[in-house]
Amino acid sequence: MSKFTHSVKVPTQYRATAKILKAALEKQKSIKSLIFEEKHARVRTLQAVLRHYSDNRHAIDNAIEETNLLKDNPNLDSALAKVLVTEIVFGRGQLTGDSKPVQTVRLYKERLDKAISGSEVQKKEPNPRYVRVNTNLLSNADALEYLVGEEWRRKELPAEATYADFLTAIRAMEEDEFMTDLHVEGVLIFHPKVARYWAEHEFVHSKKFILQNKATSLAAELLAPPVGSTVLDLCAAPGMKTLHMCNVMQNKGRIYAVEQSKERYRALCDITNEAGCEIVTPILGDALTMDATSCPDVEYILVDPSCSGNGMQSRISVCDEQKDDKRLYKLAGLQIKILSHAMSAFPNVKRIAYCTCSLWKEENEQVVQRCLQLNPSFKMLSCKKALRNKWQNVGDKEYAKIGKNCLYCLPDSDLTDGIFLALFEKNRDADED
Q1: H helices within 28-99, ranges in order?
Q2: Residues 121-146, buried b or exposed e (16+ Cβ, 10 A)?
Q3: What predicted TM-score, i.e. pTM, was given to this entire model?
Q4: Does residue 5 surpass a pLDDT of 60?
């Protein structure tokens, strides 16, 4: 990566991270996909560097220009410079090794600090750390007992607490406190400053605890497949929602988990095996080719298709993202195909949940509207009512009878990722007509 001629090599983690950043900047590729494809094991540990660059890239780029770092050192690779500057200013505060690029950036540290302190660094308030109990391996009661034993203080709300009370309590949490979620059993809420602690915790590595945002946990909560039922997860990888549905079903019944990508399919197999999911049958295949023959007796379906992903707070972006109407049109076309297929290809289906991590109407209300037109045997259920009316953000009221029944999780007001959810039920008299 570096163009310097020297005997001391740039540490592999910096070169690998710079390679990812360069591909993202020059080829407009998704950093998440590039990290997933990267074979070097330690690069995953440097997602934090890419996150810091994503959050502060304007300040970092301006500091590099203001200090003349690249002008004074024309052989220093631009992407590598960004990685090193990010690490020394926003990351660990120091650099590893004595390669020439590392030594050069060290020499500029004081000037870089001064340039960045004079710029407007955007401080985005982080959302809480959500930790979900994997009840395949650990009961909720044992999880709570463990936390108390580790001297975590549980912050409890009165039974009559409103959703607004709940959000206020989360914002006021101390670092040694935790709360249980108002909507989803087994979801634990911690102060954002302990996020790294949980990322490295032995219970997370052993899959007793799952790091899953509360918003994405609502998919299994709303679909609510009963114990012993047969479920189809049409776009399953990496498998967090599959695992959660397995927990909801108490590991009894059957879940067909479909994934088209070979790499993502392997990740799906790994997590469901490690997490003790005895009822999951992973299937490498195209969602649109699945039917009652390949997946018999399906009663509940989760449709969580590819989407723009603009609601994800963990999303790492290295350029100013604009609304891409052409891309949204293509994505919506695929989403309509998959959701409509779920509604038409499985005669025993009772309920379907549709979920995206997008905040665009083109992928949400408009997809729902079109699929209901194509499949009149289905009706919508109110997501808000399913959450005992303890929610506030619903869909666009311009979409008659649709918007009010959909649900949005909004990062600023719900303290979660940005997620859209819709719930469908097959009319019981539809089969009789």
Answers
A1: 31-37, 47-66, 69-72, 78-89
A2: eeeeeebbbbbbbbbbbbeeeebbee
A3: 0.80
A4: no
